[in-house]
Amino acid sequence: MNASMSRQKATVCSAGRQACSLNPGVVIRFFPVHSLVSSRFSPHMVAPAHPGLPTSGIPHPAIVSPIVKQEPAPPSLSPAVSAKSPVTVKKEEEKKPHVKKPLNAFMLYMKEMRAKVVAECTLKESAAINQILGRKWHNLSREEQAKYYELARKERQLHSQLYPTWSARDNYGKKKKRKREKQLSQTQSQQQVQEAEGALASKSKKPCVQYLPPEKPCDSPASSHGSMLDSPATPSAALASPAAPAATHSEQAQPLSLTTKPETRAHLALHSAAFLSSKAAASSSGQMGSQPPLLSRPLPLGSMPTALLASPPSFPATLHAHQSLPVLQAQPLSLVTKSAH
DNA sequence: TTGCCTTTGAAGGTT
DNA sequence: AACCTTCAAAGGCAA
Predict the structure, then answer these.
(1) The pLDDT value given to residue A85
(2) Which of A7, A193, A230, A276 is the most exposed place for a label (fewest CB within 10 A)?
(3) Using the CB atom, is residue A95 less than 7 Å from strand C?
(4) Is the shortest CB-to-strand distance from A225 to strand B under 7 Å?
(5) Distance between CA atoms of A223 and A213, rounded to whole angstroms?
(6) What keywords is this UniProt entry annotated with (predicted)?
(7) Which of A141, A177, A224, A180 lies closest to A149, judged by CA?
(8) What is the Cα–Cα distance from A267 to A332, expressed in whole angstroms?
(9) Please, which positions of strand C sit below 7 A from a protein CB?
């Protein structure tokens, strides 16, 4: 976790969500669905720097203080004196508040539901929680998802009003990310699947995470990938929903993930496999065997009914190839999950 | 201390 | 147009 994230977490917690994980109700109380937008972009939270808007001294939630320590300006360097050296300019740039991206629908959903899932599942690892949340997201009804899309849309609107010149590109490079390896060919990927499967069978580096406490069963991240066994409660809704835009998640089939940390994925897959085996026993057949092979399944982007794409204005108007129905993907579970970008 | 993991969606860049 | 890359949140974990 980088520094800005830490700061933000601290900000979020201190801003009222004191029990970040202890009390599942707290999150909802402070970030209820209908107040998520306002809590982030409400006028009283407006960034002081934004022209024409009231200032309160309360930093905007989307703003994160610059990473660099603020050094006291030398007395000789008055702002009025405008012969700025490159160093000064650089410092000023560094001091520029970090305006964060507005949250998308899923992020808003996660924010609201995380604590609940944590409480239900006694899980804390976000990676696992997010898998569960991803699955829950796809199980949401269209109306429920629309609610979050609408919120996200408002967030974006408000964000663009507050920061008209802001671009998502501004934040590029703020997070240091491991360089992504070049995309492997499918042959290579298949090879890697096999290798990862081998790793799965042979070693598990990380300690196990308990996904399914016996007393409090919950959605397993495994099922999110193996959801052919565990299809959405309303498959038609999932298919119809632009949120689960019929296209399969091309990224999820990307083999890159296999190259990053196979042992970790193998570890996750171990749990997934265990979960799946029990699921498979329960679900008496059919679906899985009838599914086309994962990697060869074409993107059903074109199969998306245009009426559905166009219908509710609150849903995203566009679809990307990688926006998909992971619900339909699955299979070797974490072995085929989306790469680390 | 820092980056990865993991999810979906948005946005901007590249092919 | 299609594809690719990055970042948004979160907290445990590894280096």
Answers:
(1) 53
(2) A7
(3) no
(4) yes
(5) 15
(6) Activator, DNA-binding, Nucleus, Transcription, Transcription regulation, Wnt signaling pathway
(7) A141
(8) 13
(9) 2-15
